[in-house]
Amino acid sequence: MAREWQQTKMSNYVMPNAVYYQTLWAVRDLSRMEARLEELALKEDSVSSGLVKERKSAYNKKKSKVEDAAIEAAVLKQRVSGINDALLEVPERYRKRILDNIIFKETGTGYSDKTWKVWKQKFLYGVARNLSMM
User: Fold this and answer.
1) Number of domains comprising the chain
2) 27: Cβ–Cβ under 8 A, 6 or more apart, which residues?
3) Does residue 9 lie within any of the structural domains?
4) What is the spatial distance between Cα 83 and Cα 56, in angstroms, rounded to a whole number?
5) For 55-111, what is each residue's pLDDT tens digit?
């Protein structure tokens, strides 16, 4: 696998390596997170909202499945929206190229314009900022 490199000429957007790689993997995980959100939404729709289960001991010992699903959905929504919001900061003509490079590891050969690399760095910095890594 080819190594990922930051655009170090843009010192305002250079991140620590650990943050840079976490950001890359968060973007690569975007489709799984979106699929999981849809799955959680379908489960939520199928659960009857009229039933309430109450026991004193249940509140002290463990969380319910509904609570776990709600927490997971909230975290996933925050991550997905953080990535999508950062993508909206990139000009539309570079969005697909950047995502293809990050997710599918496509090289930049065949593109005479290298400006997409600058936007890739800005996008990843935006993702790190939106996900509270920076």
Assistant:
1) 1
2) 83, 99, 102, 103, 124, 127
3) no
4) 40
5) 655 555 666 787 888 899 999 999 999 999 999 999 999 999 999 999 998 876 666
